[in-house]
Design brief:
Strand 1, helix 6 and strand 2 form a beta-alpha-beta unit. A five-stranded parallel β-sheet has the order 2-1-3-4-5, with helices on both faces. The chain is of the alpha/beta class and about 230 residues long. It folds into two domains: about 100 residues, Methionine synthase domain (Methyltransferase, Methionine Synthase (B12-binding Domains), Chain A, domain 1, Orthogonal Bundle); about 130 residues, Cobalamin-binding domain (Rossmann fold, 3-Layer(aba) Sandwich), CATH 3.40.50. It has ten helices and five strands. The model has no long low-confidence stretch (mean pLDDT about 90). The structure holds CO-5-methoxybenzimidazolylcobamide. The site of CO-5-methoxybenzimidazolylcobamide has 37 residues, from helix 4, helix 5, helix 6, strand 3 and strand 4. It comes from Pararhodobacter marinus. Keywords: Cobalt, Metal-binding. This is Cobalamin-binding protein.
């Protein structure tokens, strides 16, 4: 629209800029999202605030309209690409905290599921908190989780699922780990929009994490507890 072409992002107030970024994310405008992220950072916003108050909040609106049949897969993919472009700018900043190494996490989205924005965000925040993160991507079968956990000598397994049809696969992974006698060697955290505490408990995970910040706090608490019990891996 001609009106939109006239908008100069750097001239907007913080509130107007964030509102405009939400519109731009909705419209899948990658370049504008990158520009908006950079402007907020230049104005002294923390990377975490840019992430949560502009990008995640914007993606929540996209989610609602996707659910309600107002947006469709191609539009949501564009929005996701714009979101990822913004996250790519924030990633090194979030990881740059100089926090002491806390442990190693293998994280991946389960088999049948290709949603990766939330998982990527958890990985970024975990790195920022001092964890080493091995991201095995999307659509992971149980074999991939197990092979990577063993090869990496990890402390934590993180699994993500965004679909009600794929979340039961987390139990397949945990049950297989139990069968192999390796379940108790790892802290298992699960997350994703359709999950809840009860589901996490029912499938035998150590904890369900509502969001990336909770994942970080939970991982820190459980790693500390494991260290105190003297059973943590080096
Ligand atoms: Co999808 N999709 N999608 N989608 N999609 C949902 C999940 C949906 C809720 C939309 C809706 O109807 N409202 C719905 C699921 C319904 C259900 O199962 N009950 C849905 C559907 C139906 C589908 C398809 C089946 C659509 C179709 O093809 N007809 C299809 C499935 C494909 C597949 O996986 N096999 C599909 C496809 C897609 C796109 C490819 C278009 C795209 C994904 C792009 C990508 O990820 N690269 C997409 C998107 C973007 C969404 C929504 C709109 C947004 C998800 C997102 O990125 N949110 C989503 C709607 C929604 O969730 N409200 C939707 C932002 C992100 C920051 O939040 O992922 O929740 P989230 O992560 C949070 C927490 O959940 C938590 O921390 C994160 C950060 O705070 N967390 C963890 C997540 N993982 C964690 C792991 C942890 C800890 C915490 O480990 C320790």
């Amino acid at each position: 629209m001609a009106e939109d072409e006239d908008i100069i992002l750097s001239e907007l107030s913080d509130d107007d800029l964030v509102a405009q970024m939400m519109d731009d994310l909705y419209d899948g405008l990658k370049d504008e999202i990158e520009e908006g992220v950079n402007i907020l950072l230049e104005r002294g916003w923390t990377p975490y605030d840019v992430l949560t108050k502009a990008l995640v909040a914007g993606m929540t609106i996209v989610g609602h309209d996707f659910r309600d049949g107002i947006l469709f897969v191609p539009e949501v993919l564009l929005a996701a690409n714009a979101m990822k472009a913004g996250m790519a700018i924030l990633k090194p900043l979030l990881a740059e905290t100089g926090a002491p190494r806390m442990g190693k996490m293998v994280i991946g989205t389960v088999k049948g599921d290709i949603h990766d924005i939330g998982k990527n965000l958890v990985g970024m925040m975990m790195e920022g908190a001092g964890f080493e993160v091995v991201d095995i991507g999307i659509n992971n079968p149980v074999e991939k989780y197990i092979e990577t956990l063993e090869a990496e000598g990890a402390d934590i397994l993180g699994m993500s699922a965004l679909l009600t049809t794929t979340m039961p696969y987390m139990k397949v992974v945990i049950d297989t780990m139990k069968e192999k006698g390796m379940r108790d060697d790892f802290i298992i955290l699960v997350g994703g929009a359709p999950l809840n505490d009860e589901f996490g408990r029912a499938i035998g995970a150590d904890a369900y994490c509502r969001d990336a910040a909770v994942a970080v706090e939970t991982a820190k608490a459980l790693v500390a507890r494991k260290h105190n019990q003297g059973t943590a891996r080096a």
